[in-house]
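pipeline: protein-struct stage 2 | run 1193 | Prostaglandin reductase 1
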Amino acid sequence: MVKSKRFVFARQFDGPPKESDFELVEEETPELKDGEILVESLFNSVDPYMRLYTRSLSTGITMIGEGCGRVIESKYSDFPVGTVVMHRYGWCTHAVLNAKEQDPQSPIRKAPADYPKDLPLSLLLGAVGMPGMTAYFGLLKLCDPKEGETVFVNGAAGAVGNLVGQIAKIKGCKAVGAAGSDAKVAWLKEIGFDAAFNYKTVSSLDAALKEAAPNGIDCYFDNVGADFTSTVLNHMNQFGRVAICGSISTYNDKDPAGRGPYPFVTILSKQLTVTGFIVLRWFPEWPQGMAQMVQWIKEGKIKHREHVTEGFENMPKAFMGMLVGENTGKAVVKV
């Protein structure tokens, strides 16, 4: 048995999450049964979706989230000791998983056998993991960008947004991004965005979009939602495509439905295709997407950046910081 720590989702969030909404518990892991594996977490992820999904969770459970860890004990031959895996085992240092009878909604994923040794394993939670697949499939499957088109993404310096812009450039598009600080804007331009602006300091979002995308927007990858998106839709070109990935601007609202302007006439008149998505819909294709992202990283076409918080005890701080934009690139916790 191994001493394990986990964070319990102790109280429903009332507005922005607080440290008191979580409870740190220390316990011993149970002895393994046939078909089970014991995973020691190396990195734990913090992502915006966690804030949204907690609305429907019961308190008292382990806080949700994905981790990347190594098998340290096994009673299932398909997952020998030393295997690196990714799984939604939540905010914990160790997890006992049933590898023989897996939940298809929460599969245990092995790190690719040919994963480059010179790439950090934390990228399996970032550019080569769920955020990378979100950018890859969300943009290419739903927006289907064509060479010469303009792709706009908000939350552009986050785990998903920066990859959307870089993939757009690989596909021969103009990449435009919005981020929340001058330093983030500078980084976006450094990694290849054609235009970027600080949405917090511009006098008018409408004017900033006109300047950054004077020929209109063909593909919009939305991470923010609400009034921001209502404004962007006015700048879409005819037959534009919109991928709704997130709505982080509303996640702390007590009334997430909001009371913003209705966009339906704009969608109708511009004949837009607007699609919300959850990236697991393409799960069978993830190996292909992961291989492509690794190749682009090795070729220098995709640049990655991580915001690493040291220490498992700092999971709540990392989560709260990510929600207010303290991170540039993917936010992870090194256990």
